[in-house]
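Hello,

Following up on my earlier ticket. Below are the four sequence lines again, exactly as submitted.
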Amino acid sequence: MENKESFSCDCDVIHEDVVNRVRAAMPEGKHFYDLANLYKMFSDNTRVRILWALSREEMCVCDLAVLLGMTKSAISHQLKSLRLTNLVKYEKRGKIVYYSLADSHVKDIFEKGFEHILE
Amino acid sequence: MENKESFSCDCDVIHEDVVNRVRAAMPEGKHFYDLANLYKMFSDNTRVRILWALSREEMCVCDLAVLLGMTKSAISHQLKSLRLTNLVKYEKRGKIVYYSLADSHVKDIFEKGFEHILE
DNA sequence: ACAATAGTTGAGCAGGTATTCAACTATTGT
DNA sequence: ACAATAGTTGAATACCTGCTCAACTATTGT
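Thanks for your patience. The regenerated structure is below:
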């Protein structure tokens, strides 16, 4: 109990004022959880290429599979993740399912990312 | 060999024109690799909170450990990843290592992310 | 010189995840 | 009705990754 705060942590508080200010401004945990989950969708090579391709044109599963040199199954699994996080939408026309981006935020996120890595 | 292109994929090309246009515009693989790696840093709950905290104030390892209720070791491991991807910089003053964001792109990326999840 | 503390590091482990495989549904054309 | 094809799905596997633990370095104060 010699610590100023009884957290499950092996530290004394070195700059208590800083910690208190930052903690006071901190969004609730759920927002960080959601944010991490959003960026998780961009953090895989396959998914990021799918998202980029769909930012250019609407495509079906086979198109994406050919474009990326992967199986329909692998693509379909990733598209499911992207559907569940509401990053892509789809529309079935006949046998074929056409995928496209759910909204324009995805393009914005790409732009910011490319700005960072291309410098 | 009945496929129009001999990729290791179980598909026919359904919309060859679409695939060709997208492929022609596609950045080289390295860029997607780098982009995925960048977003990987934002895709973990701990790292995203560290980055957010550092976007508010410069902090040392102990401050971050207390703020997030984690061990110095866990924080230090994550800071190492963030250092290696050039998202944070650090400065040792005495015994204490002060971490801060490497550039302003990180804040921009946060903003875009929050825009998306808060709707 | 010594104790105490900030921070780093590598090994090990537990949980997570991306692809493969095989089986399945749905739709089209004959 | 049947064959062919687009797409999905769940289980299995192999890989990746985040935390813990213990040992270590570096710096400060006494």
